[in-house]
Write a structure and sequence with these properties.
With about 240 residues, this protein is α/β, with parallel strands linked by helices. Helices cover about 20% and strands about 10% of the residues.
Length: about 240
Amino acid sequence: CDAGCAEAWELCTGDEDIIVAVMDEAVMWSHPDLADNIWINEGEELNAGVDADGNGYVDDIHGWNCVRECGDVTADAHGTHVAGTIAAVNNNGFAVCGIAGGTGNGDGVRLMSIQIFENDKGCYSHQIAKGIRYAADNGAAIANNSWGYNTGDYYSDDEYVQYCGVVQDAIDYFKTKGGLEGVMDGGLMIFAAGNDSADCANYPGAYNNTLCVAAIAPNFTPAFYTNHGPGTNLC
């Protein structure tokens, strides 16, 4: 069982006009298999200490570190792994190929790093929400989220909205404000269903304004660890 990339690549291998926000650990923007597809906020400089583009964020050349509220996205393994699955450079004879990594000519989707985990630290809900809004306001069309709350933390959209409204508001904002004119009418928030082997998806993935993805094994059955069932949209 695979994702059918060979057939998809006959139509499109990726598009540099599409920005994908990776909300995770930070993406290693200097990685030789990612560098050509990394989003660059033109006008900003690394460690310059200046908000050169006037968007309210200092030194945000490749995204935003929500943990420390700064532009210094500190690369780590999981965020880089996720970014590689999305848009590692194709046809370069090195490492792996990305789903939307382009042809090898720097024409894959652009990877924006929204860091919500750093070492053993994570973010509060309002910091996650700020990261989602940053992504939407700075051109992201898609946000990939390989994280979620624990199974049983929330049982319905009403309960989720009541107790985690700040993140829910940001998700709705991204759906409205994200995207790309003439290509995508609004942004697409993608979440993992969860890794608890549960028969329902975790939130935020189960929330109805996201695309919730479960994992599938090579034999077309659910992966042993994946959540599945209600709240899941795609395997």
